[in-house]
Predict the 3D structure of the following.
Amino acid sequence: MRRRASRLHRGAAPGLVLGAGLVAFLLAMALLALVWTPWPPAAIDVPHRLLHPSLAHWLGTDELGRDILSRLMAGAGVSLKVGMIAVGLGAVPGVALGLIASAVKGRSEDVIMQLCDFAFAFPALLSAIMLTATYGAGIDNAILAIAIYNVPVFAKLTRAMANSVMAREFVQAARAAGRSPAGIAVHHVVPNILAALLVQATIQFSIAILAEAALSYLGFGTQPPEASWGLMLSEAQNFLFVAPRLAVYPGLAIALSVLGLSLLGDGLRDALDPRLQKIAWQRA
């Protein structure tokens, strides 16, 4: 039985390993771009525009003669920056609101959840359009828009998971012992929902990368001469029949990054969720 259960767990391992590998490669490329790129990402060299891959330019050059590989590396840094900041800014208040809603109940819980439902009516793209119309286009407004969208996601997940933990015996015992709601939330609820929050964070990270690419493609995100995968796609659309590789490279980078984060999230869910482990043992 144990050998059979182990095989069930090993069946999910390749996805986790592949996802972790893709995410590690994305992180390595972004970190390397901070200290070195083959060419300056914003350096224009019009006489050498639209060059095919060569030893000098491994992935060729774009319509302005800029090195594509260098811009892909710089774009990886932008994607990581947007993902980390947007998820962090969305997770902290979202988790706090979810814990408050689970602890206080009643009218306060209803108000918090109604606010979350209201926030869902303004997806990241629409929020970015409103922010850029007021304050101008830029990566900061794009990050803020994505973060605002992440708040209700984490709030609703935290409330649902916290309600489940609150009904368990050890929490009731802590409440009977006189522990405050804040103490229960910090010492009993958060440790038991941390795995689910971590999985959700990887999912929202991939969504943030897609959202940033879409906003940059539409002109609301990263602005020239900075490099962004979405901006590279936008610039490449006029050369699809002349040099389709200009769109293939950033599109592939976005797809692999989202795939890696999705596989990582699924693998972490399978590895960290004790209910899935219990199911595997029961099937064995």
Observations:
- The domain at 2-39+58-283 is CATH 1.10.3720.10 (MetI-like fold).
- Confidence is low (pLDDT under 50) at residues 1-11, 278-284.
- The CA atoms of residues 33 and 155 lie 34 Å apart.
- The two ends are 5 Å apart (CA to CA).
